[in-house]
Amino acid sequence: MILLVHGDREYLRAPGGELHTDLGIVDIPEDVEPGQVLESHLGDEFVVREPRGPDLFNHFERTGAPMMPRDVGLVVGHTGAAMGDRVLDAGTGTGVLSAYLGRLGAEVTTYERDAEFADVARENMELAGVADRVDVRTGDVTDHLEELSGFDLLTLDTENAPEVVERAPDLLVSGGFVAVYSPFVENSRASVEAAREAELTDIETFETIQRQMDFGERGSRPSTAGVGHTAYLTFARYE
Fold it and tell me: Over pLDDT 90: what percentage of the chain?
């Protein structure tokens, strides 16, 4: 897949196809390369760009509010997720976290209870080029805990996350991490209590808040749009 960019417009297309817009029709060569400029039949120019993760994720079909880059960054930074890691994820949703981890080179098994959401997530993994590393399964992870083990990282975005955290010692290798994402502090507190009961270590919770900066003629200040809260992230480790 490649991106065709015209101003603030972006179009994701496959080489060898066509782009139809109000700016005209663009024929995309099979051997198109990043940096090329393609012209529509009306004379408008489109710059070819190789899509990176954020570009692909912006074109995902969404089944709900996806995890934001700020949260993905915290998960990766606090757990050290890397190539070759085995990850057990629950609450796939749109699949943003699974796709990011897959593009890092991790092998991800992710569970989504809603069958339609799971189908969309599989399509998104194809778009991100990680379908061979991300196994999207339909079902509730709690129904399969007995058959799962040997993971380096456990990531949870579900209401029943505390129930899974209790089983972390059976699911993780020594030194493995748990990361729980929740928009509600009650779920985070329950996850912390479950981590303590499971005798996990390095337990900590953060609220992720990000404010965009506005730079204008009168001065510079944080944007007043929105409060910037996305979720609470709880981390813990199995020794």
Answer: 72
